[in-house]
Amino acid sequence: MRPLTVDSLNPAVRNVQYAVRGELAIKAEEYRVRLQEHGADHGLPFDRVISSNIGNPQQKGLDQPPITFSRQVAALMEWPELANLAPQVFPKDVIARAKELYNETGSIGAYSHSQGVPFIRKNVARFISDRDGYPSNPNHIFLTTGASAGVSLLISMLISKPNKSGILIPIPQYPLYTATLAQYSGAAIPYHLDESAEWSTSLDEIKAAIDKAIQDGIEPRALVIINPGNPTGALLNKETQAAVVKLCEEHSLVLLADEVYQSNLHRPASHPFTSFKKVVRDLNSPIPLISFHSISKGVSGECGRRGGYFECTNLSDDVIATMYKMVSVSLCPPLQGQIGVDCLVRPPKQGEESYPLWKEETDRTHKALAERTQTMTARLNKLPGVSCVDSPGALYLYPQIELPEKAIAAAKAAGKEPDAFYALALLDATGICVVPGSGFGQKVGEYHYRLTCLCPGVDEYVGKLEKFHLDFTRKYS
Question: What is the separation of C-alpha 117 from the centre of its chain, rounded to a whole number of angstroms?
Fold first, then answer.
């Protein structure tokens, strides 16, 4: 019998790379296990691993508190009898919400409509309409297993010619896009964001990328915009968004708007969020638009519940029917994720019993994220050889680091990218796990890393980053 080997697997699967959970994350987990199993005899220069590599707010060690309202509704959906067993525990509006949802879904142990519970899709449509001032059709909304599942579905559908259909992706980018393109034999068409202008989106860069792709025999099918950006946190202004829409019209591109960080705004007065749905409707544009959102980010941080949605704008009924056919193969997204989406788009209202606590919790998390971002940016920018754009949104910073020639040579000798070599040394010395910029894409000769703004104890955390950088620079100078 022939053994199953990696070489015998689908070559597209072998080409998938996902830096956020790559070599560094695996090594960090090994250190975490070592700390647990060996106690005081672990022999490491740190006593805990700090997972700054991923936007996973409620992960152990980051410990962002969940929103009480959402968890109470989830608890009653899991076991409705709790409302009778502990009648003084749950606020009246929570009990009413859970009953309302239960009447629509029944047991969350059952499959739902493959597109998502119709009642919850209606609530998502109302949320979108209230946000943008334009109608939203619940039949054009798909609830998903996190936003990632929606992205994967759309990319799989858009790659009509293997290795010849391409999708424009920003550099730096969230590795989900290159990984999914590799999985479905699509071509990544990179366009660079402008670091010197707060990681702004350059129309000239996108146009040049389109021209090069066509010259290389690649057909551009779609344009990805991540707004607010990951890993950069950048926000597009309305003028740039309008220009992007016009560009999509000119080149017959589907616009994939990744808007999962839309409520993570650190300076909303100067850097507000505007959805692409609103811009498309303001311009009366015919471009096909898919907009993604998720319960994993914002202040909910419910990554493990796997809830999200996408909305289709200007798509034909037969394309939407094809989408429905494809999601039906997976039966339905998780019910608790769908419940999480309902809580995201229908938070407590002023005057309801849960509102004061909800407001206190959300304000506290927004404040903590904004303050950490500001503190980290200021201190990183004081380090020699480090420059960091002050991120106005999302959950990350993406500093650029100047590495000594000796460090670059040592990295090459070790068979590593220079910023991965730096990040591995950082993990070995401090227990801090970051993602090297080579996993997100960057210009030749530049080096970055991404770290989250989710880590509590920011003074100690940044202090370790500072000491390591100075020690590393001295070692290789």
Answer: 24
